[in-house]
Structures are given as structure tokens and as C-alpha cells.
Amino acid sequence: MKSIFVAAAMLVAAPVALAQVAVSDAWIRGTVAHQTATGAFMQLVAERDGRLVEANSPAAAQVEIHEMRMENDVMRMRRIDALPLPAGKQVVLQPGGFHLMLTGLKAPLREGDKVPLSLVFQADGQAPQTVRLDVPVRALHGKGGLGHGR
After folding, report:
1. Taxonomically, which superkingdom (predicted)?
2. What share of the chain is helix, strand, coil (3-state, %, to 5)?
């Protein structure tokens, strides 16, 4: 499993305690022609308590943090303002759960493409930190079933 470790304020002259976030197995679901939205998925582990507070990509007009959950026997998806990242605990963004929703796609995303994605994290008591990734696109249909990209 590939991991990217981030300490995002390395240009600060004075030593400060920085949040480190490990991002692993990041991927974006491929699309078909005229599809204008898709999901991004990954695992996150923060060294200290914090939150994922924002995401953006030049490939989409908007990127939102979403959660899916059952309400009265119906699966509902809704935007959330921030995703809590408890220190040392893996937070999984996956189909059917927390995920990033890319909307207003500027072009179809095909397996093998790389999509620039910026994540903004904020640790308790710290300034926001931006992490820039190039996220691979996985096939729309994969071994894991419709849309799981696995």
C-alpha cells in the first residue's frame, strides 16, 4: 500500500508542531461520456487530532466532502463541512461511506489518468495545511463490482 506522508509547512523558520497526515490508496472512480460527477477515495491517518476541511481540483468545478448513511432504510448522501481525523486512527473514504465528490467535471476521467487533488487539513490549534496529490483514476467497473474500481 502506497503512503504519502505530509508535513506541509516546511518553510517555517521557527520550529512548530505540525500535523502529519498519511494519505494512502487514493483513487478516483472513472467516468463515462457526459458524466459530470464522480467520487475520490483514500485512507487518512493524522498524527494529531484534526480535520479535513476542504478539497479542490482543477479537473472539477467543485469538490465537496460527503458522507453516505442509512436513514429510514434509504441511503442518503450529504455534504459535510469537515471530516474529523482522530489522532492515530485510520479514516477511510470509500464508496458507500465518507468520500470526496467531484462535480462539474471538465472532461471524462479514464482509467490510468492522474487527477491533481488538493486536500486542506487543519489540526487542532494549527493553521490549515494544503497537501497536493496526483490521484490515479481506476476503471468504472472493476473486480469489486459496479463502480468500486477494485
Report:
1. Bacteria
2. 0, 60, 40
For residue 104, give the amino acid letter: G
Grid cell at residue 108:
471524462
Residues of the chain above pLDDT 90, percent: 66
Nearest 5 degrees, angle CA 6-CA 51-CA 112? 55
What letter represents residue 95's amino acid?
Answer: P
Burial class (CB within 10 angstroms; exposed 0-12, middle 13-18, buried 19+) of 78: exposed
pLDDT tens digit sequence for 34-92 = 999 999 999 999 998 999 999 999 999 999 999 988 778 888 899 999 999 999 999 99
Euclidean distance between CA atoms 67 and 141, whole angstroms: 22
Q: pTM of the full predicted structure?
A: 0.80
CA angle 42/47/48 to nearest 5° reads: 115
Domains and CATH numbers, the chain: 3-140 (2.60.40.1890)
Which residues, other chains included, contact 116 with Cβ-Cβ below 8 Å and sequence gap of 6+?
Answer: 57, 58, 59, 132, 133, 134, 135
